[in-house]
Every structure is written in C-alpha cells, then in structure tokens.
Amino acid sequence: MNQRQALVAFGALSQETRLHIVRMLVVSGPDGMAAGAIAEKAEVSPSNISFHLKELERSGLITQQRESRSIIYTANYEALGGLIRFLMEDCCSGNPQICAPAAAVAACCAPATKEELQ
C-alpha cells in the first residue's frame, strides 16, 4: 500500500458510521452481509448506508458482489492488512520484536471476535 492509498483508506475510516460498518463486516467474515442487514444493524437509513458503503468500496476496504437480488458486502482483508503493514513498516527502528504483536495481526488479518468490537 502506498501513502495515497493509505490516506484514502484513513479518510474513509475517519467517519463513525463507516468505521462501524468495517468492523461489522470483519466480524461477519467471508460470508459478508447484505446492505439491508448492515443498515438495520448500524441503525442507519438505506439511503445513508448506501452513501457510506460507496465510500468504503471506493477506498478498497470493502468489496461487493451480487447474490440474486441482494448485494453482499465483505471486508477486504488484504487491504485492511495492507493498511496495518503500511503503519508498521518502519516500526521501532529495526527492532521488530517490539511491534511483533501488531505485525502478527497484519500478517494474519483474522476477523475480530464480537467481544473485541464492543
């Protein structure tokens, strides 16, 4: 990930509803969530959720796919891991053991548990 991509991603995440959406999609895993379910769970109107989903998709942090009549959104784990790696790439002046826990998260990028999101 380059600096421009990181800035777009951070810009998308700097809004409360969008950050909440990304965290929900991380929890939902590869199955993702339909736009209506995201709106309901985030307590946001369908038109408002559409705006936020477009911004997140433009940033590359989420992806969408059509399944029958629904659009399913999923977290882009590769992009999220890339964002973490971007932040940590010059970690601790060459002492990787200091930031090893964060590096492990970036390498794995496993979905967070529901408890971690609360």
UniProtKB/TrEMBL annotation:
Q: Where is the HTH arsR-type domain?
A: 1-95
Question: What SUPFAM superfamilies does UniProt report for this protein, alphabetically?
Answer: Winged helix' DNA-binding domain (SSF46785)
Q: Which UniProt keywords apply?
A: DNA-binding, Transcription, Transcription regulation
Question: A single GO molecular function, which one?
Answer: DNA binding
* Highest rank taxon of the organism: Bacteria
- Which Pfam family is one of those matched by this entry? HTH_20
Is DNA-binding given among the entry's keywords? Answer: yes
Q: What is this protein called?
A: Helix-turn-helix transcriptional regulator
